[in-house]
Design a protein that fits this description.
alpha+beta, Arc Repressor Mutant, subunit A, 3-stranded antiparallel β-sheet, 3 strands, 53% helix
């Protein structure tokens, strides 16, 4: 039982640590509004591609995001409805950007 509790706590810590960065919160907001290719987050956040890739990896590892390969690109989305609901309860709302291309990930 103790080991199980430790594993669950570690997962929770990873989840909430991933939310503890302004850039990652922006990325989540954009993804809630529209599934988009990872390459689009550079212009949305004004961060370089390496930084965006690092943030996306953290969000995937935390179980917040999932992605699908579309040719050479990855299209990111919120992992499932349970995570979407949790993000909503935490006050994280969809954020439209003038850089978002409608339906880019669909």
């Amino acid at each position: 039982m103790y080991m199980y509790t430790c594993i669950i706590m570690r997962d929770h810590v990873r989840f909430f640590k991933a939310l503890g960065d302004e850039t990652r919160l922006k990325i989540i907001g954009y993804i809630l509004a529209n599934e988009t290719c990872a390459c689009d987050y550079v212009s949305m956040t004004k961060k370089d591609q390496t930084t965006i890739s690092h943030h996306l990896k953290i969000l995937v590892d935390a179980g917040i995001l999932d992605y699908e390969k579309n040719g050479r690109n990855k299209v990111y989305r919120i992992r499932d409805d349970e995570v979407k609901e949790l993000l909503s309860h935490l006050g994280i709302k969809p954020h439209r950007s003038r850089y978002c291309r409608q339906g880019a990930g669909k």
